């Protein structure tokens, strides 16, 4: 290295001790006070000015300024209260803007504890910032206060930095003790040195060195600042209400988030200090526990506190764990991917770099201390199956549900301890990697959240259920909504709420499972059936059961008959009745079997237990306290005497536009009616002009091969982009978004997200049937995006669909998407500003005129 690369500290004697600074050096001072640090910053800044260097001061601490703005010193004020990611990203951007060979002074890093509460995150900030400064040939001064950080934090800083130096003040004299000086050495370099003006006098005599160090408090290894705060909080449990409230608020800031949010206010009202400490005791790592965990915990607390023991008999306890959001950042930082994440968060890298980052997130290593905590958690659960669920900062909050956007992974938890541990780690990686899913990225971008701090915490729950032979599952599971926005009969009480109910694991309730139809339960009258002919009920009901196979150690689909005929440890007729009509039809067709098939009708469940009433009361209470419709996930398990326990797994605000003002319906004339029906729509009272109608013709679609059907789906996605900003109604056979092309067009939700109306049209001859998907993730997307939904079911006396009126209009597909000409016989795009759709909730009337 040439003489021109050598840099002065401003203390000539000390320059000689360490053979000067070098371009690229990060210099960390361990000090007893900020005032001591300032004594070293000042000569460094003066020397930089004399040498004509650009000096930047990064100001974020609460302490007094180290330097004042001047012609030679540029000051950047950065808000560290915005959190680790926002702070680190802003520092990265300004370093990039300032360029090469700039000199830096940072405020004391220990001050970041007041905002981040975690030593771990200070170490992470240093690890992502210093290598970038080194690459740009800068020289940067940092400080940490002695005995304020854990050994592991200091060790991480020592490993990353080029120089680590102790500064002591003893009897009004200052001593510098180099601990690490990278790529330089002299016989006296690592002795302490007395600083006397510009001179540095080495303390080489053993007597002097021993006398100096014996007077210095070296401290003992400390707890992370996070643990110190929670330990202090335990000490005020028997103090005054005001002291407890202040501590509770502080801990909630650390675990739950921003005080200004409605969810924070709910938590503040219902949780006491002991509750918050109990939550913290079950956290792995540090940081927020995330929206899904908060929603589950506050809902349970509301039921416990406001129901006056009404639900005590019915609620299953939980023993969940929470992997803090700081673990997510630490995983990224310590695997060396922070720069890639920073690039991915830019406009140009948002989608283009997501796949690369996703792949890396699936193959990283966790820090040793986190691995040990994972191990202890798994030892606690033993061989009970667990589910590893995303719990990001923005999930399940007012305004954004993120329903189904991130992963949930079952760990059946069978095998040797090593095998079970590896499967658990793999599950965490899958949840982390799901932050880079295209649907999740598009969801965040479409809601203006692409720049938001979206850390991923994780909720680890014991799977609710029991072992039945070699399978594990709950008796029933599903989702519930306090407001029934999808009604098909004017007698339905919308405020009674509804359930989407399945037998076995609830995965079949949150997804649109092919060939399967969960039971839709109106809680004002649970026996009411959706608008399907009675003879079609076996066809349009649940056919398979999702279970955890303890033998194969994975999530499996089993035939309903296989599971329902086995030992259930309760009365199977709570859920299913013998289907004698189907048995008779099979005999007539020549099938001989002594077994009578079962049909999941849940008749005894609704007539001989309090299950429906309890679920209605739970939803009503939660909705009243939230002052907002709510969406829950639940399981229920039954005993031989008909008793049951409900496990409340999740609760979030149900994003809904409301019913809207009553609409005056037009007189329906045959010559102007495109379609009409009774019920079968969702989206409230509307009167909406339609600019374009896109119709996928059923027969022509079904005649395509599988590749052709996927081509139709991709075409819909292109039309979705081209017609953005227009009022478009999308009509097609069967289920939109199906993963089985023979049951409907297999679009992703992002490929229809700009539509104003989505219409599913049945085709009974081909077995295509809209699914009343109310309560599924698909439904959540429709509601949040404000898309009006309608189902047209042929064979219903109230339904009319005059598709020929639409097909008589010019097909403008080639004009809008010229490359799609080959599909013009399948996809018809009619441009018309004379089409209007009307709906009225009270009369359950749906009309579309053209």
TrEMBL record:
UniProtKB keywords: Pyruvate
Keyword Nucleotide-binding: no
Key word Cytoplasm present: no
Top-level taxonomic group: Bacteria
Segments forming domain Pyruvate phosphate dikinase AMP/ATP-binding: 289-663
GO molecular function: ATP binding; kinase activity
Name of the protein in its database record: Phosphoenolpyruvate synthase
Organism: Ruminiclostridium hungatei (Clostridium hungatei)
Upper taxonomic lineage: Bacteria, Bacillati, Bacillota, Clostridia, Eubacteriales
